[in-house]
Amino acid sequence: MSVTALIVAAGRGTRAGGDIAKQYQLLEGEPVVLHTLRALRAHPAVQAVVLVVHPADRPGPLSRLPLPPGTILVDGGASRAASVRAGLDAVPEGTSQVLIHDAARPLVSPEVIDRVLVALCNHAGAAPALPVTDALWRGSQGLVSGLQDRAGLWRAQTPQGFALDRIRAAHAGWSGPPAADDVEVARAHGLDVAIVEGDDDNLKITHPPDFARAAAILRRHRRDDQIMDIRTGTGYDVHAFAPGDHVMLCGIRVPHDRALKGHSDADVGMHAITDAIYGALAEGDIGRHFPPSDPQWKGAASAIFLRHAAELAGERGYAIANIDCTLICERPKIGPHAEAMRAELAEITGIEPARISVKATTSEQLGFTGREEGIAAMASCLLVAR
Ligand SMILES: Nc1ccn([C@@H]2O[C@H](COP(=O)(O)OP(=O)(O)OP(=O)(O)O)[C@@H](O)[C@H]2O)c(=O)n1
Ligand SMILES: C[C@](O)(CO)[C@H](O)COP(=O)(O)O
Question: What domains does the chain contain, in order, with CATH numbers?
Answer without folding.
Answer: 3-224 (3.90.550.10), 230-385 (3.30.1330.50)
